[in-house]
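Researcher: Here's a chain I'd like modeled. Treat it as a single chain, no partners, no ligands.
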Amino acid sequence: MEAYAIERHLRLSASKARLVAELIKGKSVTEARAILRALPHKAARYLEKALNSAIANGVNNFKMDEDLMYVSDIFIDAEGPLKRVLPRGFGRADIIRRPISQIKIIVKEKEEV
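Model: Modeled as a single isolated chain. Structure tokens:
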């Protein structure tokens, strides 16, 4: 059984978020939470929020046991950039592109042997 959560439209670079995501992939959810709380990165806050949502989805919707859950997979995709216009001299304009990302975290329950 698996549960997932998706966070969309995050003002975050996908490449920077992937570095943090690799630290928690394959870990138990309690260990992943502890790692994310200790990290100073902006991506860690977003990943922790998505992880908590995925855990809640598994517990409430699929009756999964939180103690047996682990982070099975994480997908971080870049969306199109957020565009802003900065006025310049002589009637010109510069376009500022800011990165937008989305996070999908999948948690699964370990099979008891």
